[in-house]
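Weekly structure sync, notes
Attendees: PL (lead), two postdocs, one rotation student
Agenda item 3: pending single-chain targets
PL asked that the sequence for the first pending target be pasted directly into the notes so everyone works from the same version. It is reproduced below exactly as submitted, 138 residues in total.
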Amino acid sequence: MILANATVTGENGYAQKITAAGHQYTSDEPEKRGGTNTGAPPFDLMLASLGACTAITLRMYTERKQWALGTINVKLRLLQDTDGPLRIERTISVSQAIDPEQQAKLLEIADKTPVTRVMSPGIGIQTTFDTSTQPARG
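Predicted structure, written out during the meeting:
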């Protein structure tokens, strides 16, 4: 069973044309790394994939539960301490007020998303919930 397809093509330099599911993307390296900065670097695309999967999965789950989240925001950072393993910090926030039990369930669901499951055996992913932008429940 094929879960996804992508074709990546490049003639010279680091810029790559990506075709996936009929959509076109570009990946490149920044100028400081010898690229022309015509697209997102590969690690940024990896984080974007994880973030999109997280937000989509949370939206699917909460629609079934009929929870109003408003805007879902997923911020991601790829980090490495000196000579340590790579790790990802993922912070989730929503624009609607939710209770602590709902937050806990969203964190649990985030750790079970398809892209998280594929990536997590090779890289640690730490997920937190940011409530600083959330309105008070009332």
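Discussion points:
- The chain is about 30% helix and 25% strand.
- The CA atoms of residues 68 and 119 lie 29 Å apart.
Action: rotation student to compare against the earlier draft before next sync.
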